[in-house]
Design a protein that fits this description.
28% strand, 29% helix, 7 strands, 7-stranded antiparallel beta sheet, alpha+beta, globular
Length: 190
């Protein structure tokens, strides 16, 4: 198998992006992006450590859990989870992040790229409390670019069409999968 190794090789296989596809990228949160973020109950956060090891972590809560502090600053609260801290550890090493905001039933997504830092500022953590429980920490993202992403991937996948969803019983339970994966890991270590 031959792999594409240069940007020129890659670009030769595709037509140039349309002018609007390039121009739609803006350097700040405009009213449409702010409205999108306010309605999104889920954001996927892409990050990398200083060696290029990548991670994508979902963060979810009630719509509006990610706060627009100003046109170039977002606040993403951290809630109780597995305490792996994959994304946060990456941000300490390499602050570049990519965010993908999703709204159920809406095929378009909002992409935000920027630089992140983590804070445990008590006032901000309290401001982002849910059910009386303040955020443990907050990821502050300095926005560098924002754009709406076209709907083609969601439309092709039928992600929001329940009639296309597989029967959940076709997959083992989370507990079964984790148990098997732990056994697999132990066998590889042994």
């Amino acid at each position: 198998m031959k792999f594409i190794e240069t940007l020129d090789e890659l670009r030769s296989l595709y037509t140039a992006p349309s002018t609007n596809a390039v121009r739609k990228q803006i350097p700040a949160i405009d009213p449409h992006a702010a409205r999108f973020i306010a309605r999104a109950p889920l954001v996927a956060i892409g990050s990398q450590d200083d060696e290029g090891n990548a991670d994508v972590t979902p963060k979810g809560d009630a719509p509006g859990f990610v706060q627009v502090l100003d046109e170039t600053t977002l606040a993403i609260p951290d809630r109780p989870g597995n305490n792996r801290l994959d994304t946060f550890s990456n941000v300490i090493r390499n602050p570049s992040v990519g965010l993908l905001f999703m709204i159920p039933g809406m095929n378009e997504t909002l992409r935000v790229n920027g630089r992140a830092r983590i804070t445990a500022d008590a006032t901000l953590c309290e401001k982002l409390a849910v059910n009386g429980r303040p955020a443990k920490t907050v990821m502050i993202v300095q926005v560098r670019e924002v754009f709406l992403h076209c709907a083609k991937a969601y439309m092709r996948s039928d992600l929001w069409k329940p009639e296309t969803w597989p029967d959940r019983s076709e997959m083992p339970s989370l507990i079964e999968m984790i148990k098997d994966q732990l056994s697999f890991a132990e066998a590889r270590e042994g």
